[in-house]
User: What shape does this take?
Amino acid sequence: MHLYIRPVHRSAGGNWITGQLRWQSFFAGYNRAGFEDAHWDWMSTVAAVRARSAGSGHGPGDSIRVDNFRSPLLWDLLVRGREAGVQFVTAGSGKVRLHKNADISLNVQANGGGLLLQPLVEVDGNALDPTSIGLIGSPTHGIFWWHPEGADAPLSDRNIGLAPTSAPIPETFRLLVTARSPLQIPETGREAFFRDYYPQLHQQVNLISRDGSVELPEIPPPSLLLEISYAPTAPGSRRRASDSPAHTEAVRLSWSWEYTQGGTTTAYPLPEDGTGHRDRSAEAGTLATVAGLLDGFREAWYDAFPRPADGFPGRPEPRELHGVAAARFVAEFVPQLEALEHVRVLQSEDVPDYTELTEQPTVP
Assistant: This one.
């Protein structure tokens, strides 16, 4: 289903007609006579934004297809049009209403032993008929819908609503909307759905069971795992007189992610692994917290953590600290890391006793 808009004006008889009006008229800047400046300026802006959004140097034709209007500026334009006094009408007797926001969810409902998945769109607290919804933009940034009353009437005589979405719409949701029918998951596929698909959907869209027929599992955010192991001093290196042969100086730091669902924990490397099962928003938040704590100790993390802004994907190889740096990290920073939420520190059993000297050492 597509939604088009075209410029019209009042005839001498009071009817809305197209006449010689084309979007190209506003894009090219001619035939301005007879229009209010605010109306003309608004129409010209819409035509220009649409041309840029489509990547074209030419103005739009007779009509603009709204559902493939890529720029989210559409919503600001529509509001400004209303404020300027531009009237939005349908081709028939229907009315056009702009709404501030549309909330999207994916409704999961029991269907015998299986499941039904259906898009749920709510505007002003009211659920829309999922078979009467169209999507705007790619990526989708809004919706339009026609009211189901008067099902035998042509669409041009029905009321049309438009609203931006409160969050980006994932491709899965888009496919369910365009299919105009629920996705049925048989009982034999229920376990696989919750294991393989539910975690990813949980990151992309709000999941609910509106009738309470399905208990949706909570998915905790991932935990950043720091594994610390200790390596003996390299042969030939200098040791203090108080060192024992087994004294350890090198500290090896291995960073990774832990995802837990249904009692099962899965490990992932810091760099993107292509599985699509990662909660990148949660990961970025935790990494930012840890990086802030360790900002003055970059040798422990800087070459391991992903830095998307720099195009650096991160590295899975362990970091290694030596001597005073190793002692300071273990004694000072490990306790602080252990106190952070969504961070887990796992140390090997041979933890050295790093004790800060407060007096001059005595050599016998």
The helical segments are 23-28, 37-53, 73-84, 171-179, 190-204, 280-293, 323-338. The chain has three domains: 4-88, 103-208, 223-347.
